[in-house]
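Here we describe the complex-level prediction in full. Unlike the single-chain runs in Section 2.1, the two entities below were treated as one system.
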Amino acid sequence: MTDETLIKVDAVSKRFCRRGDRALRYGLQDLVGDLLLRAPRDALRDGEFWALRDVDLTIRRGDVIALVGENGAGKSTLLKLLSGIYRPTLGSITSYTHKIAVLDHSAGLNPTQTGRESIYTKLALLNQGRQQIAERVESIVAMAELADVIDAPVGTYSTGMRVRLAFAIYAHVEIDIFIVDDSLGVADIRFAQRMQRYWRDFVDAGGTLLLASHEMYLVRSLCNRALLMDHGRIVSMGDTESVITRYLVERAPSADGPASALGGAPKLPATDAESPEGSPRPPEPAPDSGTDTSDRYARFANTGDFPVRITAIEFEAAPSFGVGEVQVLGQLCIRAFCESTVAVERVMFGFEILNEQGQVMIHLRGSESDSHYTLKRGANVFRATLPCVPLMPGTYRICAAVLDYPTSALLGLHGLEEDGQTLRVLPDPRNDLVGAIYRGALMTAPVTWHNGAIAEHPAPPPDGSSVPLAMMSDVHHDR
Amino acid sequence: MTKTVNSAFSPLLDPRRFFAETRDQCRHSTGLARMLLRARLAQLYRYSSLGLLWAVVPTLAITVGVTLSLHAPTQPTTPGEVPLQVHVAFGVVLMQTFVEAFNGQRSIFDLHLQLLQRMKFPLEAVVMAQIAESGFNLLAKLPVLLLVLVFFGVPLEAQMLLGLLACVPVLLAGIALGALAAPISALGKDIDRAMAFVPWLVFLATPVFYRTPEVGPWAWLQAINPLTALLDVARYLSYGGGSPHWSTFWVTLVALALCLLLSLVVCKLAPPRLAERLSA
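The structure predicted for the assembly as a whole is:
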């Protein structure tokens, strides 16, 4: 990267209108406004919204910038403004180059022209002379792998074929900035890899690349800087890894399931945690009878107050991150600090991890072994360790409870009414969870992959039994 | 290094820069316009067995049809006047030129709307390509006119070259109005619908199938109809017929120049507005 500025974006905002009829009318108004030299107005008309708001950005030669964010965050709008297709509603964009190529799903090809005509037209649009074009046509056709259909109208091509053709055209032109708007997904794997190789070479040669993509592996492997966009604003800008991490955390799965019974009976009871003393496995807590936590405790203590006050919940993660943060599939040690006014021989400690919608993601109580805690007057510390946190990246909260072992009555509760202790689960860069996030997965899990093909293809056993596993090639990838 | 500013403020605030950029863009777009024209002609005639003959066939068929259907003497009844068939044939060809140039700008604009949403490119090239196509269409019609003149025994004189020159304002009128209407009708569907029948109204209000009246209220309307002035001057210069309203003609030429300038400005300003509003 050099200090040579290629594009400077100053306080740019862009508004759009969701209503088709008004959009056209507003377009006409804006056109007339231009003719009458009206100054731009920082206001929305009926049906309009800000697709981009107050964006400042400087793109220098050699920058390789990823634009990440959810659909509708403003990525494509920003890219179209940068390439000069749109005009800002407010602010200005100064470009110091006109050698900008935009590759998107539709590839900007005229469907009525043949592929060969499109090559000529597109290259002419990119300021290439007839001689230069003639010299490159066959090479472009070969690169796009469209020799058989190059004289057919582009309208008969599949989306992937159009992207291949457009990409091959751009790859034959000297370009300062390559803008790629999420077009990898429409190409087949082989061609997508070819495009990636081209972009790596382009970047290595000092080219400037702006990549709007949901393919995080590609973003990670190519980009040295990333912008996280949300609701038309750049909410984070910095090194790729940290921005992607934030993006994935904020795009945590959101289930629409019913919220946890925060005000109802506690579903928290005991833990599988480190148990200070051996004891018989505690029984299941009594089923929820519909009474609230105070009532249940009142039956035990005949008072309105819990005898155990959980004063704090602390986490210790391995590998270690910031306070209250753990990596996906990382280890998490939870400590609950309590002040008790009573001494109880046998109690259970338990906790729940809830997502932002209040849905219970993890519910743990008691011990898998025959063990129990003893509660003393004064300060107590309960500890539990999750060797592997199977949660998707996102923000969660933890509620903890201490229960009387024989009756399952609540002695202390923390987190349901006080919103709990926040736990942020961070993505693991080695683990691409984008697919899981798209599918709305709520959890993940450690896994061992058994890759590779069957080493031999012997005739099936006469009894019809399956090929023994031992014949599989022995390639394992542990996660 | 080239510096371009894409600002929220109207580019017309700096008119010198705006027109300098437009001029440079036009200059750089000639190659592209040539290529677009070739591609356009190839598309138009790609799937027809008559190919480029289609540029002549409609005019020829209409002219023959009109000539045969008119129950008028084939010889002039008054000295210095041409048969009505010649008058109508000229009117049809010139009007066709106007309507084709008008609709051509709109159709090529529509054709490139999708492209406008995907990439920035000089719309000047598209306009120039369509101007060239309209010119090509006019040239393709001229042999038919010559045929009509020869058929009806109208002497061919050198003055006819002036008549050809006078066809150019008709062509430019179609181009200017079409280029002005194209982006506006893309943004306003009411205007778009109106554009479908306006050429027909113009057709009726202009003496194409009849001689220009010289007395009465209709004559007054024709005297101020700019298209009538353009058509009649072209007729007059070609074969000496018609009733040219020279004052209207000159006013029309000035208005035409202004309209061309305005359409150029609108075509330059419209693409980002179209791209954002059509994709919204």
